[in-house]
Amino acid sequence: MSRVSTTTTEETVVAPVETGYWTRARKVGAGLVGFGLVAAVLFGSIATSQTVRFTLSDDAQGAALEIDGTVGAILFGLIAAAAGAALFLERGARWFTALLGVGIVGFVLSFLCWQISDAPAGQNFMPLVNIVRGTFLLAVPLIFGALAGVLCERSGVVNVAIEGQLLMGAFSGALVGTMADSVWVGLIAAMVGGAFISLLLAIFSIRYLVDQVVMGIVLNLLAVGLTGFLYERLMQTDQAKYNQPPHFGNWDIPLLKEIPVLGPALFESNIFLYLALILVVVIHIALFRTRWGLRTRSVGEHPTAADTLGVRVLGLRYRNVLLAGVVAGIGGASYTLLLYSFTKNMIGGKGFIALAALIFGRWSPTGALLAALFFGFADQLGVYLGAINSVIPSQFLAMLPYLATILAVAGLVGRVRAPAADGKPYIKG
After folding, report:
1. pTM value?
2. 65, 82, 102, 376 — which has fewest CB within 10 A?
3. Is 125 inside any structural domain?
4. Neighbours of 4 (CB within 10 A)
């Protein structure tokens, strides 16, 4: 295994180069060939000849893409296998990401052709608008959580406390939003709640040099215990006074909402989705195109060199960790100021999926967005399959987003390198 330095327009990355026969492309290609052939044979044999419809609306009406269930299961399975074969033969190594995407999509479509064709009569369709809308909705807290991770870890601080930041944001938004009867006051409170957890992370990790991973786990437990205690003492005793927060409505964007499929799903949505997408763009530009971003990345890669050039390493880390808490707090508010009231431990592990999205997205805001959408789709797919009475047990459907997380991080992400100083405390000489 040799190592070479490859320069991009954004940063210099040290990437491993595999020189043996079983390169990453061959391994992934072989896996896709296997999955594709299993899909073609297994799903093709148990799918029915019922016409499968992928409707371009939020119901069974209107235009649709139609295909015979058995034919679709076999065809899409073979497409996945063909993409894998191209990778295995290294005919498309330069198109690794595209071929990997084709293979995954082919396998998923083969699976869906089986499931939809086998659904009860009248339910043999998938409303794409609903699927896309649900994917974005379920991905929103993951996007905010992953962005919080990007801000911390690009600065050299491991953020395992995303779960606690989301939970504290959700609790603070619900409590203060209810008492003030204002979604905007609730949103500000959620930011403060997330920043509170970040402040503790910053103080103990940066000032007192506590192990950052251990500190993150402790803060998650603190958030669960504190919010659970206050929930039982306040919210359960008087829901109307402490736990009935007002909710943001949808904000439609004229013209853009007329775009087929994406328009109704993306541009007839809520403030949290718009904020998440805006923050992805803003943080990406700031991280790779501004002086602050250059200093942040230098502190995360080589803090001693940054300090030599006059960068206040510890001060920058404090500010970025606090900013990460504010961002994660907004993600927590998307639970209680959009759809639900607060319940104990309502985040349910989504903070750890956001951490996986951060790694899957290679510590990049845009990569984190795509990873969050991938996990959001897995979650939405489980909801959809339950709605059409899938033969797959509901317990397995509930596991889909977590299985997708394991598959993505362990099988698809490949070798990645975190910022060199990530998790390493800096002691000023």
Report:
1. 0.89
2. 65
3. no
4. 8
